[in-house]
């Protein structure tokens, strides 16, 4: 008996034709288009009546010119002929690609009306019922019956892609936020660039023009263009805020681990550099809360330029004497969080963190989306079991949004506040920022107001697909907190255990960096990364302008690539009519100014130090390797023929003691990126 | 690109809106899906169209994907349902066209002519009742009886019975031909 089957199988295998390559490409593209169209439309169920009419429209759109002949006698037959896709194929003789909605013309719309009006009453009824039958067929065969209407709708949806994709952007909420952060590059253009990149890796290169206007997915990344080269004689001053976020590195890792190069806009070089702990000298007791170290080295990717490292090492206050912590977890429990990389990982992460807390610390949990409300009243960390129970009962599901989860979280935090204690709201989400305030600007203002009353906000991102990196960034920046992306349990270990003190205790607020370059020494300079952190020159001395916070024990590095005057690497020609060099010659390359506020202060303090040539150690070498890696991923044009292999060699030579294995992991990621970019 | 990411991870990422994951997933399974569609329909053109139906509907169906299911199982379930839809629509269409003038009857006949020009196997397959054909298509695609039962939402016993029934009928067809 089995022999029969084996024979049959062999027969069948040999009879099965190869799929037609053309159709294959078409079908894959169709699927992708529907996929994209669906991203913006899934939540809204469509009214039934629209389905019927879209079905009719599809049917009529499929009429070719030949269809004209059916206007009178064969009208009814044709009606049925076109009821089904089968019928359409039959009519046109050969299987056709789905009707192009772009061909919906005024004329067609009219003839559709006429058809319906002219048709005998019973015909139009039959037509509609047949169409309904078709819809039923779809629904009946569908495990989730209600989804079928989306399918039928798809071709019609395609016709208004541009406006729809705009809608999606607005819905995601990130776009509005981004634009206020950095409005340099045209949004659509940058998006498209990133999307094309991702696609070329995995899809069998569908024609680019067919997909460009579509949204890649609902992930949103800030679209700041890489910092351009500046000419010292024209703009000698460079000002920016520090950035202690690490989310970009985790996003890059998560992409690479999945076998894809990350979207370019997801790569923020400074966050990749600052992901790693560095061994720079800490400040002496009684000094400023952090200590700047400036060092220089020859640029790995250009022997004629120099890298200037500015490293700030924060002091590590005695952990034993830290003030009590009041933590409010604001947890997204929308349906999308049920993914194993989201809520379950979040639960495990918080359990890890719980072990780091002291008995006098307090924890409260507020959820939003899904099940809204306070699920754990402020509870001392010593009541471990109560907290664990509450965490275990968190369930993803539902989509109703209760009253603003964020407001409630802050209310709870206010109730927990006491003198000398540290208050923090920790928002954990996969990108659903439906926290009760819908206007992104109002949301930022609200968080900034709360920041001024002493409650800070940190944002933890989980899962991919819907990740709204841009909003995450904006919220954490305004809340004086850290934005971190948790993709694995070991990342949770790093953020919530190893560096918990740093992420929760601020030692210096509003840290700004300003460098004035000396045109007599430096012809051109370029700040690597920090695109989303640029400040105006006058903002440096304005204490009202917010900037990044430095956590306990954190180190922050900024790297400039500078071209010494007279170097063959100089990209701009000197001006013929510029006034001759007037500055008294000085050995100094530039002058570094730092401003920060002691925690709780309103007035900033100033630190200054000249920048001169000073040999960089292995810590700076490693940072340079990461800077190069980040730029390779962003495809910056300043790297010449420097490759991933060079980055790997440099990082390996400067790996240091690497007690947590972060640097080893970075080298693995470089290898992955290297093979993926082949 | 690396192929180590599991189908299931890709499907989940795609369900979460990751378009690259979706493209990657479909690209990986397209050929197998097409082969399965061919077994279900027994004709190349029909298989191409069925695959197109599935591709068009797949994004919406992704929402129904559950982590505990294997992607192939889920995909085959979608394919079987889509095939049923097509057959039902064809039946509706055939019923509707009955009696609507010679012109239409001729067209239908011409179409039937084309699909008759297939080799023995597909013809034999086509002579089987639909439930037997679906079952056979799955089992010939190296699905276990348990998996096929899961996909067709019947018991494993039913699958076994259908397979032996299908074999019996195929043998009968063959004998008839040999005799004729």
Brief descriptors of the model:
heterodimer, A: 678 residues, alpha+beta, Immunoglobulin-like, Rossmann fold, 3 domains, five-stranded antiparallel beta sheet, 40% helix, globular, B: 180 residues, mainly alpha, Rna Polymerase Sigma Factor, Chain: A, Arc Repressor Mutant, subunit A, 2 domains, 9 helices
Describe the structure.
The complex is a heterodimer of chains A (678) and B (180). Chain A is an alpha+beta fold and 678 residues long. Chain A has three domains: 19-158, no CATH class; 230-317 and 507-573 and 582-676, Sandwich (Immunoglobulin-like), CATH 2.60.40.1230; 319-504, von Willebrand factor, type A domain (Rossmann fold). Helix content of chain A is 40%, strand content 18%. Chain A has 24 helices and 16 strands. A six-stranded mixed β-sheet of chain A has the order 7-6-5-8-9-10, with helices on both faces. A five-stranded antiparallel β-sheet of chain A has the order 1-12-14-4-3. In chain A, strands 2, 11, 13, 15 and 16 form a five-stranded antiparallel β-sheet that branches. In chain A, helix 3 packs across helix 8 (148-157) and helix 22 (618-634) runs antiparallel to helix 23 (644-653). Chain B has two domains: 1-118, RNA polymerase sigma factor, region 2, helix turn helix motif (Rna Polymerase Sigma Factor, Chain: A, Orthogonal Bundle); 119-180, Arc Repressor Mutant, subunit A (Orthogonal Bundle). Chain B has helices at residues 7-15, 19-41, 44-61, 71-97, 101-116, 120-127, 130-140, 145-152, 156-179. Chain B is elongated and about 55 Å long.
């Amino acid at each position: 008996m089995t022999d029969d089957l084996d024979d049959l199988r062999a027969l069948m295998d040999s009879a099965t034709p190869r799929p037609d390559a053309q159709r294959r490409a078409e079908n894959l593209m169709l699927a992708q288009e529907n996929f994209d169209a669906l991203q913006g439309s899934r939540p809204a169920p469509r009214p039934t009546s629209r389905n019927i009419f879209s079905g009719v429209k599809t049917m009529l759109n499929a009429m070719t010119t030949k269809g004209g002949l059916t206007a009178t006698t064969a009208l009814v037959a044709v009606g049925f002929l076109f009821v089904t896709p089968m019928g359409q194929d039959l009519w046109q003789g050969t299987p056709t690609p789905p009707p192009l909605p772009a061909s919906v013309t005024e004329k067609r719309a009219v003839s559709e009306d006429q058809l319906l009006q002219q048709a005998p009453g019973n015909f139009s009824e039959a037509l509609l019922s047949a169409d309904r039958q078709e819809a039923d067929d779809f629904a009946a065969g569908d495990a989730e019956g209600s989804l079928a209407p989306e399918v039928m709708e798809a071709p019609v949806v395609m016709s208004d892609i541009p406006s729809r994709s705009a809608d999606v952007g607005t819905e995601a909420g990130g776009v509005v936020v981004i634009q206020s952060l950095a409005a340099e590059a045209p949004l659509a253009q940058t998006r498209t660039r990133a999307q094309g990149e991702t696609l070329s890796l995995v899809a069998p290169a569908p024609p680019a023009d067919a997909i460009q206007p579509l949204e890649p997915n609902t992930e949103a990344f800030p679209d700041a263009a890489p910092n351009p080269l500046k000419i010292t004689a024209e703009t000698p001053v460079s000002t920016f805020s520090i950035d202690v976020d690490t989310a970009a590195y985790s996003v890059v890792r998560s992409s690479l681990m999945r076998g894809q190069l990350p979207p370019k806009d997801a790569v923020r070089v400074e966050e990749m550099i600052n992901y790693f702990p560095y061994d720079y000298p800490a400040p002496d007791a009684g000094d400023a809360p952090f200590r700047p170290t400036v060092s220089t080295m020859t640029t790995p990717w250009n022997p004629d330029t120099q890298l200037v490292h500015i490293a700030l090492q924060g002091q590590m206050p005695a952990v034993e004497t830290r003030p009590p912590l009041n933590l409010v977890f604001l947890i997204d429990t929308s349906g999308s969080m049920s993914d194993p990389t989201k809520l379950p990982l979040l639960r495990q992460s918080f359990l890890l963190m719980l072990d780091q807390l002291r008995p006098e610390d307090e924890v409260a949990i507020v959820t939003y989306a899904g099940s809204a409300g306070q699920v754990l009243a402020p509870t001392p960390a010593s009541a471990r079991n109560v907290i664990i129970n509450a965490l275990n009962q968190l369930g993803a599901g539902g989509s109703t949004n209760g009253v603003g989860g964020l407001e409630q979280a802050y209310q709870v935090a206010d109730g927990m506040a006491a003198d000398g204690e540290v208050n923090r709201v920790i928002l954990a989400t996969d990108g659903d920022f439906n926290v009760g305030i819908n206007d992104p600007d109002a949301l930022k203002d609200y968080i900034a107001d709360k920041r001024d009353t002493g409650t800070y906000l940190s944002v933890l991102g989980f899962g991919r697909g819907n990740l709204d990196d841009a909003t995450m960034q904006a919220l954490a920046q305004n809340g004086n907190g850290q934005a971190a992306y948790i993709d694995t349990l070991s990342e949770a270990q790093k953020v919530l255990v190893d560096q918990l003190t740093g992420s929760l205790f601020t030692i210096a607020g509003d840290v700004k960096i300003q460098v004035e370059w000396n045109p007599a020494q430096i012809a051109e300079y370029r700040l690597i990364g920090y695109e989303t952190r640029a400040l105006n020159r006058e903002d440096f001395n304005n204490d009202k302008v917010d900037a990044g916070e430095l956590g306990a024990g954190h180190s922050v590095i900024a790297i400039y690539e500078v071209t010494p005057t007279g170097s063959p690497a100089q990209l701009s020609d000197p001006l013929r009519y510029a006034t001759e060099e007037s500055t008294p010659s000085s050995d100094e390359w530039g002058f570094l100014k730092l401003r920060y506020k002691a925690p709780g202060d309103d007035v900033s303090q100033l630190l200054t130090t000249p920048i001169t040539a000073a040999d960089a150690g292995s810590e700076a070498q490693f940072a340079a390797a990461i800077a190069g890696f980040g730029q390779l991923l962003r495809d910056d044009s300043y790297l010449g023929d420097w490759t991933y292999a060079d980055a790997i060699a440099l990082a390996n030579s400067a790996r240091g003691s690497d007690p947590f294995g972060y640097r080893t992991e970075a080298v693995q990621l470089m290898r992955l990126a290297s093979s993926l970019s082949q | 690109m690396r192929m180590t990411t599991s189908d299931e991870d890709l499907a989940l990422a795609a369900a979460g809106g990751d378009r690259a994951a979706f493209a990657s997933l479909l690209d990986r399974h397209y050929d197998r899906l097409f082969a399965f569609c061919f077994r279900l329909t027994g004709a190349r053109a029909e298989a191409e169209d069925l695959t197109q139906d599935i591709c068009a509907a797949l994004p919406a169906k992704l929402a129904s994907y559950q982590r505990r299911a294997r992607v192939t199982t889920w995909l085959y379930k979608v394919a079987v349902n889509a095939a049923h839809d097509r057959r039902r629509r064809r039946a509706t269409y055939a019923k509707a066209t009955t009696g609507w003038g010679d012109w239409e009857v001729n067209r239908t006949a011409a179409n039937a002519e084309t699909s008759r020009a297939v080799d023995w196997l597909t013809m034999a397959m086509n002579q089987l009742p639909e439930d037997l054909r679906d079952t056979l298509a799955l089992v010939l695609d190296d699905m276990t009886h348990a998996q096929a039962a899961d996909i067709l939402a019947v018991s494993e016993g039913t699958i076994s019975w259908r397979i032996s029934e299908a074999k019996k009928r195929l043998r009968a067809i063959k004998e008839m031909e040999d005799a004729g």
